[in-house]
Design a protein that fits this description.
alpha/beta; 319 residues; disordered N terminus; Rossmann fold
Length: 319
């Protein structure tokens, strides 16, 4: 199992971006001008988390569907769920989709929920490991079928190449910081785009939770004597991302922040799909015991429910 962890991070990144990009959201609509639907409309914008990646039935199990159902029960009014989230999108992808007219119901939305930014960070790791795989002619999908001898040789080769932790961390940091700088400008443009088309909708902005609070070098597929150099790396970048989102919501008084990061941090066990690998040993329920050969950071059913509950509480002024 240790040998196969060398590309665990690459697998995790591919999973976070929904195993590749999907060119369409779950909202099936024509390109004609939107018609006001009966009831109240909620439009959701985001990435694979909002799309409902990993759910058996995203249309009913993702947090936007759960949330509209809760609102219907609370308000005794019909709520329509228009989910335009696309697996793999970062902030620039979302902005482009808006400019391309991919959120038809947004002008008539009563509520808009935005969850974006995770791929501005995890996308960097995906790019990095994909580049390394290409350099070594590695088919990531075929790693599980490799023999132990092949994997041992691959591990030794990669460990030597990635042993320079200082250089590696500088490269990853530079890429992530650049993407987070882009998040700042993308959010501002997103706000202007939305408000030009819908001045009255309540707009909720979700921050980003940490799926690996105990991450160290092993999460990056690296096992070196300087493993401590990676301690806190994931949390540090997520903290910066969430500070950008917090500053953005403070800048615009009409935006409503939703702290799902704290909700996930308080959950035990952490409600991500990766914890599913622990079912064989029910005593291992905390995040540090997740089998890192199976790293899927997406919310599981409980996680999607937690996001819906957290947004609902903010909507109702309970938090």
């Amino acid at each position: 199992m240790q040998i196969r962890r060398i590309f665990a991070a690459a697998a995790a990144c591919l999973l976070l971006t929904g195993c590749g990009r999907s060119d369409s959201s779950s909202a099936a609509e024509s390109s004609a001008a939107p018609v006001q639907a009966s009831g109240l409309n909620m439009v959701t914008l985001g990435d694979s988390i909002s799309y409902g990646y990993g759910m058996d039935d995203p249309d009913t199990q993702r947090y936007s569907a759960i949330l509209t159902a809760k609102l219907e029960q609370s308000d005794n009014r019909k709520w329509n769920d228009y989910n335009y989230a696309v697996s793999g999108d970062d902030s620039s992808d979302l902005l482009k989709r808006l400019n391309d007219g991919k959120a038809l119901r947004l002008p008539s939305a009563d509520v808009i929920v935005i969850c974006i930014g995770a791929n501005n960070m995890l996308g960097v790791l995906e790019e990095y490991f994909m580049e390394k795989a290409e350099e070594h002619d590695i088919d990531l999908a075929a790693v599980e079928s490799m023999s132990d001898e092949e994997l041992t040789a691959l591990q030794e080769e990669m460990q030597e190449e990635m042993a320079d932790t200082e250089t590696l961390m500088k490269e990853l940091t530079a890429r992530i910081d650049s993407n987070l700088d882009r998040l700042v400008t993308d959010l501002d443009e997103m706000y202007d785009w939305i408000r030009e088309r819908n001045a009255s909708a309540e707009v909720y902005i979700l921050n980003v939770y940490n799926p690996y609070p105990d991450a160290d070098g092993s999460l990056l597929g690296i096992e070196t004597e300087n493993d401590a150099a990676y301690d806190g790396f994931v949390q540090e970048k997520i903290d910066r991302c969430n500070q950008i989102i917090a500053d953005f919501t403070k800048k615009h008084a009409d935006l409503i922040p939703v702290d799902i990061a704290s909700a996930f941090a308080a959950a035990d066990p952490l409600p991500i799909i990766g914890t599913g690998s622990m079912d064989a040993d029910a005593s291992q329920t905390d995040a540090e015991n997740v089998d890192q050969s199976y790293l899927d950071p997406h919310p599981n059913e409980e996680g999607q429910q937690l996001i819906a509950d957290t947004v609902f509480q903010v909507m109702r002024g309970d938090s």
